[in-house]
Amino acid sequence: MPWDRNDMAARAAQELEDGFYVNLGIGIPTLVSNYVPEDYDITLQSENGMLGMGPFPTEEEIDADLINAGKQTVTELDRTSYFSSSQSFAMIRGGHINLSILGAMEVSETGDLANWMIPGRLVKGMGGAMDLVAGVQRIVIIMDHANKAGESKLLKKCSLPLTGQGVVDRIITNLGVFDVVEGGLKVIELAPEVTMEEVRNKTEATIVGS
């Protein structure tokens, strides 16, 4: 059966390596913090100027002034540091973040990413995604395989405004794990009971190597 949001987050946590500096995008990516291996030293970075985010707070721990870039309340660690947004983006643009796990509206078979706006709809802000995909060493996407109308979100070519061209390394959907390779997307892993036939039927992008 397809993975749910927590299953996708748990699978994305397998992309972490001990000692990594990691930026988590808004939405499903924030759940990845719940699945960091206990023996790993992972430092989470937030664009609004926080390095070393702790887990989500309990009701007793909530501090309304302590938030991540998605305006969710978080906790701090003994080693947490705070700084300006400009310094935060200097870390990102300077290539000092090992991995960013982001959400997406569309991804193309060549690794193009669209995740910041839908024309005609209110946009609160561009956010940091364009800087993240340009400066972070590895980009992993978590997203549903299809939209609410059942249409594939893994496309031959994105229809929405791009966040970046050729920037995506790996995609984790509710159906499986896919790498961007020459010629299209390569299936790395399938969710339980999901078949290759189902993936092909629900994917507009070219599936290669299987």
Summarize the structure.
This protein is of the alpha/beta class and 210 residues long. It contains four helices and 13 strands.
Which key features would you list for this structure?
210 residues, alpha/beta, Glutaconate Coenzyme A-transferase, ten-stranded mixed sheet, three-stranded mixed sheet, 4 helices, 13 strands, 15% helix
If you compute it from the alpha carbons, what radius of gyration comes out, rounded to the nearest whole angstrom? 17 Å
Strand order of the largest sheet: 4-3-2-1-5-8-10-11-12-13
Q: Overall mean pLDDT score?
A: 92
- What is the CATH C-level name? Alpha Beta
* Coarse morphology: globular
What is the oligomer described by this structure?
single chain
Main pleated sheet: 10 strands, mixed
Structural class: alpha/beta
Helix content: 10-25%
Task: Describe the structure in your own words.
The protein is an alpha/beta fold. It has one domain (5-208): Glutaconate Coenzyme A-transferase, CATH 3.40.1080.10. It has 4 helices and 13 strands. The strands form 2 sheets. A 10-stranded mixed sheet has the order 4-3-2-1-5-8-10-11-12-13, sandwiched between helices. Strand 2 (43-46) and strand 3 form a beta hairpin.
